[in-house]
Amino acid sequence: MALEGLYVPSNAPWLAEFKREMLSFPAGKHDDQVDALGLIGQLLDQMVRGVKPKEPVKPKVDTGYRPIGLDERPLDWLIF
């Protein structure tokens, strides 16, 4: 959940109560849904091991320069 979040239907009639219980845990009066969600998470962890997401590749800055091989350079570029 920390990596991808928890997807729930936005128009579910139970969503307001679910949010209230999740956000008030552990100090809230009820914790049944929190417990059930925790058990589901443990079960999923046993079924499929989690995989750490790959680090995003930072885009390279386009300077406008392009590498070319020595054989492609004009002779006036070769300075000795």
Number of H- or I-type helical stretches: 2
How much beta, percentage-wise? under 5%
User: What is the number of beta strands?
Assistant: 0
Mean pLDDT, all residues: 77
Amino-to-carboxy terminus distance? 61 Å
Classify the secondary structure makeup into a structural class: mainly alpha
Contiguous runs where pLDDT drops below 50 for at least 5 residues: none
Order of helices and strands: HH
Shape annotation: elongated
Q: Could you describe the largest sheet, including whether it forms a barrel?
A: none
Radius of gyration (CA) equals 27 Å
The helix content is: 25-40%
Structure description:
This protein has helices at about 15-25, 30-45. The chain is elongated. The longest helix has 16 residues, at about 30-45. The model has no long low-confidence stretch (mean pLDDT about 75). The protein is an all-alpha fold and about 80 residues long. Helices cover about 30% and strands about 0% of the residues. It contains two helices and no strands.
What layout of secondary structure does this protein have?
Blueprint: H1 15-24, H2 32-47
Structure characteristics:
80 residues, 2 helices, mainly alpha, single chain, elongated
Summarize this entry quickly.
By secondary structure, the chain is mostly helical. It is built from two helices and no strands.
